[in-house]
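Collaborator request, handled under Task 6.
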Amino acid sequence: MSRVSNVQTSRIQNYIDFRKDTLSFFEKMLYQGEIISLKTGFKPSYIVNSPDFVKEILVAKDRFFVKGRTSKVLRRTIGDGLLTSEKEEHEIQKKHLQPLFYKESIHSYVQTIKEETQLLEAKLQENHTYSIQNEMMQLTLSIISKTMFATDLEESKQELAIAVSEIIEQSAKDLFSIVILPLSVPTQGNKLHKSAIKKLEEMIYRVIVDAKNKPNLYQNTLVNIFLGKGYEKTFSDEEIRDQMLTMLLAGHETTANLLTWIFYELDRNPEVEAQFHNEIDQVDFSKDPFDTYRALPYTQNIIQEGLRLYPPAWLIYREAPQKVELLGETFRPGSSFMISPYAIHRNEYVFKDAKSFKPERFFGNPTWPAFAYFPFGGGSRSCIGSKFALMEAAFILAVLGKRYKFRSVSQEKAIPEPLVSLRLRGGLPMRAIRR
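Structure tokens returned to the collaborator:
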């Protein structure tokens, strides 16, 4: 018996539902089968719901797949960076970047994370209202620029954060468009996109020139790694630009969105917030960063639960250029597969009361199947900076939570906005309340 099911609705209805409410579309498909054929004709498209098939695609048979359309769209902005490169080129880039995320490197980043978060904490004023999303975007942009580029963006971080946001919004529109127009076509969207890229490039090329002239100031940074000698290939300024843009877009917007969702849930779940405050009030931040991190198990559970309900990488897309067999099912060349962690993480058969925010799910050793929960993807293309992101999120929450709690100015339920990563529509205006 085949493990592939045919969708019950028409292609036109599926497209309308997908465009109207993309996340609800994937949730609706979740219980219709392990793999759902969308009956798209010459180039078959499938929705993957089964953890077994997710593992097969991302890990066991990953060499049979490319990222396809998502890379095509993102390449317009970030060129051939780690997020868009394929096969051997991807492995070379990953090998070069890996030292940035070794334990000792992350250890050195924590001081920057704490200092930048303390600067934000000092800026906040009692009972003032802030867009949490905007504040988190600027904070994580400052952190990534200092840790990865040894660059202080204090004077321009708001402008650059807006540029990143514009790129994300335009890329998301392209991702879901039937036709992707070249950036050379002077549409309003393309003009905004190119202007935003130019703003980021101006900063990036300044850093590259400065790193060449003052290499000692850029030791153990991304830019210095790619300017280094003795590797199997030499990287051009344009290739370094691609890696820096990739890190800017993928390395801070995702964490900012996750933190925004967590502040939203802490406000809605007073018992969780109280337990969180009780834990962080007992932590001494002057100790070794990893000792401090280990002293925050409940905070880590909060982050894991945030990643379950609101995975920044809400959709993973793969294409099979050649015929591929997955668990006894054969798929022809050109087949595409959509995997939605957002939907799969809401499977009621795996996670009881799946739509509720319950950090206690992660106490002990959870017994759910592998790839029923996979916020950082899997296989060779899993997120290279996952450990850095987890520690960054924990320290930001703990430092801000020591002094403030945040309260939404609206009682309306937040609406997820599935762009390149999962944003909260409206930015989440919240009042800062002194504890």
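The cover message to the collaborator said: "The radius of gyration is 22 Å. Residues 237-268 form the longest helix (32 residues). Please let us know whether this matches your experimental observations."
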